[in-house]
Design brief:
Chains A, B: Residues 41-110 form the Cupin type-2 domain. Two copies of one chain form a homodimer. In chain A, the strands form two sheets. Chain A has a five-stranded antiparallel sheet with strand order 2-3-9-4-7, with no helix packed on it. A three-stranded antiparallel sheet of chain A has the order 6-5-8, with no helix packed on it. Chain A is mostly beta strands. Chain A has strands spanning 6-9, 23-30, 33-40, 56-63, 65-70, 77-80, 83-87, 93-98, 104-111. Chain A is built from no helices and nine strands. Chain A has a domain at 33-111: Jelly Rolls (Sandwich). The N and C termini of chain A lie far apart (32 Å). Strand 1 (6-9) of chain A pairs antiparallel with strand 7 (83-87) of chain B, so a sheet runs across the interface.
Chain lengths: 118, 118
């Protein structure tokens, strides 16, 4: 089946959904690739929780600001609009802080590592 | 070989390179996936030129503004910051206009179509 063209607005429709208040929207999904928008308003990772993903994650902070801690680093990285980071598979990380005063918009590209890679 | 963590600033280092004045930077590259930043300052596609790619292209307009014509559509789509569009493989398109008064920053994710798809 031929894929249709699809479009959207990254900065629109950012109101929270559900009680947790953080919002996740898939923008593209196919085997081995997913593009997701995440909208945070002060949310952080739960205590002692680490993301540990089998996919790579290329993530851009589109708006707002955040602090991201990479396991093994002494202090979190401060991210502001336009900053991106490519997290290899199993690069453990957690969100230590997002600005509670505004919406922080992330664009995350999750991708399968190359075959034969690590 | 284990992939290293890499980072960058999408809104920095946007000065033109070369005579054409449009700038292209690969931010991530692996088989079947490439993430590229494009910085345009008034550039448009040459007359009668159409992009016709075997990959899909998910593209976000991060800053600036542009008009993108999709083959078969009567008029170009106006894109402003935050607008994204997913162009399936072989969706012919051309850039009719980018704002000559400012830098238009695109984030393009080129991806192999799913096996058995199209």
């Amino acid at each position: 089946m031929k894929r249709a063209l699809s479009t959207g607005r990254l900065l629109a429709g950012v109101q929270p959904e559900g009680a947790a208040g953080e919002r996740f929207d898939d923008l593209l999904r196919q085997p081995g690739l997913r593009i997701e928008r995440i909208v945070s308003t002060g949310q952080v990772s739960p205590p002692d929780f680490w993301y540990d993903q089998s996919e790579g994650e290329w993530v851009l902070l589109v708006a707002g600001q955040a602090r991201l801690l990479i396991e093994g680093e002494g202090s979190p990285r401060f991210l502001k609009a336009g900053d991106w980071i490519d997290l290899p598979p199993h690069c453990r990380h957690r969100v230590e802080w997002t600005d509670p005063e505004c919406q922080t918009i992330w664009l995350a590209v999750y991708y399968a590592p190359p075959v034969g890679g690590d």
